[in-house]
């Protein structure tokens, strides 16, 4: 009976993965000091994300940060040093607050639909793990949501709004 219950639970889990709400078209693992990922919106627009990491430097200017996403306690091993996003080869502005507190990233996924792209960065390990979702819409960062890896109800969300007027 116990084996039958375990088999049913496994089957339900696999079906849940198959029918999950989000499916990602591209993924990348962090190797050495960066991860690169690219995908296309339905209109053919190309989105390319390059995330550079660096070992925690001894001269890090923000040593007062006490809470890092991706580090159980104390200083993290790796930080995101630079976060580049290009849409059709044009760099877009990425606020420091999108990535400044994310440490020890492991992999990222990029899903592109219609006029929206969703970048997910997964980092840390066990009790220090996290999942960050960054939403891009019409060439701008619109939202960042970070959730604890083991307790997804714990996290934070930031909504971005920029003046995109082209008038002088």
Give an account of the 3D structure.
The protein has one helix spanning 2-18, and strands at residues 26-29, 34-40, 46-55, 78-87, 90-91, 105-113, 116-123, 130-137, 140-148, 155-159. With 168 residues, the protein is mainly beta. The strands form two sheets. It has a six-stranded antiparallel sheet, with no helix packed on it. A four-stranded antiparallel sheet has the order 2-3-4-5, with no helix packed on it. The longest helix is centred in the first third of the chain and has 17 residues, at 2-18. The chain starts with a helix and ends in a 9-residue tail after the last strand.
Query: How many separate helices?
Result: 1
Strand order of the largest sheet: 1-6-7-8-9-10
* Rg for CA atoms: 18 Å
How would you describe the oligomerization state of the chains in this entry?
single chain
Fraction of residues in helix: 10-25%
Major β-sheet annotation: 6 strands, antiparallel
Number of folding domains? 1
What is the number of beta strands?
Answer: 10
Topology record:
Elements lengths: L1 H17 L7 E4 L4 E7 L5 E10 L22 E10 L2 E2 L13 E9 L2 E8 L6 E8 L2 E9 L6 E5 L9
Antiparallel strand pairs: 1-6, 2-3, 3-4, 4-5, 6-7, 7-8, 8-9, 9-10
Looking at this protein, list some descriptive labels.
6-stranded antiparallel β-sheet; 10% helix; mainly beta
């Amino acid at each position: 009976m116990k084996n039958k219950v375990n088999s049913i639970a496994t089957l339900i889990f696999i079906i849940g993965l198959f029918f999950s709400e989000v499916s990602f078209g591209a993924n990348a693992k962090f190797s050495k000091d960066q991860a690169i990922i690219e995908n296309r919106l339905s209109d053919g627009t190309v989105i390319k994300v390059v995330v550079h990491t660096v070992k925690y430097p001894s001269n890090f200017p923000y040593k007062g940060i006490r809470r890092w996403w991706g580090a159980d306690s104390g200083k993290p091993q790796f930080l995101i040093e630079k976060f580049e996003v290009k849409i059709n080869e044009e760099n877009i502005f990425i606020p420091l607050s999108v990535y400044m507190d994310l440490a020890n990233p492991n992999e990222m996924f990029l899903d592109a639909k219609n006029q929206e792209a969703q970048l997910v960065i997964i980092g840390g390990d066990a009790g220090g793990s996290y999942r960050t979702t960054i939403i891009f819409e019409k060439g701008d960062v619109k939202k960042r949501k970070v959730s604890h890896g083991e307790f997804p109800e714990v996290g934070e969300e930031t909504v971005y709004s920029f003046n995109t007027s082209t008038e002088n």
